[in-house]
Amino acid sequence: MPITTAVLAAFGALVVAFGVVWLVQLRTGNAGMIDPVWALSLGAVAVFAALAGPGATLNRVAAAFGGGVWGLRLGAHLWRRNRRGPEDPRYAALRTRWGRHAPARMLGFFMLQAVISLLLSIAFFVPAWQAHTPSIPAIVIALSIGFAALAGEAAADRQLRGHLADPAARGQVCTRGWWRYSRHPNYFFESLHWCAYTVWSIGQPWGWATLVPPFAMAWLLLKLSGVPLLEARLVQTRAGYRDYMATTHAFIPWPPRHAHADDASHRPSRSPRS
Questions:
Q1: Residue 77 belongs to domain spanning
Q2: Residues 267, 173: contact at Cβ < 8 Å?
Q3: 153: number of Cβ within 10 Å
Q4: Which terminal residue of the chain, N or C, has fewer Cβ atoms less than 10 Å from its own Cβ?
Q5: Residue 71, C-beta contacts closer than 8 angstroms, at least 6 positions apart
Q6: Which one is predicted more confidently, 241 or 16?
Q7: Residue 66: what pLDDT?
Q8: Where is the signal peptide (predicted)?
Q9: Does the structure show a pLDDT above 80 at 33?
Q10: Alpha-carbon torsion 250, 73, 125, 127, what sign?
Q11: How far is Cα 123 from Cα 128, in angstroms, rounded to an integer?
Q12: Which of 67, 100, 132 is the last residue of a domain?
């Protein structure tokens, strides 16, 4: 299949999927369900690219496995978290801000997610159309990054889930595991995941294009829909969160600073991810 046809088909499927979620949220009032659908649909695009691409078998298997496992794990995690709980505060805030224009603007926001997903899917389409496989060192490094990112993000989600389920930790910041070293370790590992495809594809035709997904994801999480929205609300609603910000790195896991370091039991818990 020509790559242009495959990309257009994937984009059309994303638009339909997100359009259906938009229709459902009109009835349920829970726009947060776009998050699991986003992960699951992007994982499905990875598998589709691998099936449609004419590239080397190893390249297509890597794209399908990497994107498919990532999307299934993250999608299942977000589905369990979002399907029965209240609407994610980020989406509730947008709904309140937009007022009577919320339905139309939410549709535009969902369609923007389709465009972003298409940009991220560059990570799958490029290797799936490559005839040559990477060198052994590149394969080892790419797989190491991919497995480390998947394991790290799963661990961060599990640690936060355990913290939130602990009655003794109610109202306290999560400093378990990775959360002691980063305020958003799941965001870090999410961005790291997309770097694996860059290492796999770099030096190949159009390999440079795989730099777009990791940079785009990091920018979105750090500057647009992740950290800014979460922390603007948390500093207003969670006592002590400013102290947590002063001692703990926002993104890259790093030993916490000691200045103004309060006991972890007085730090507030982290809000849901984007």
A1: 1-132
A2: yes
A3: 25
A4: N
A5: 39, 40, 41, 42, 43, 44, 46
A6: 16
A7: 96
A8: none
A9: yes
A10: positive
A11: 9
A12: 132
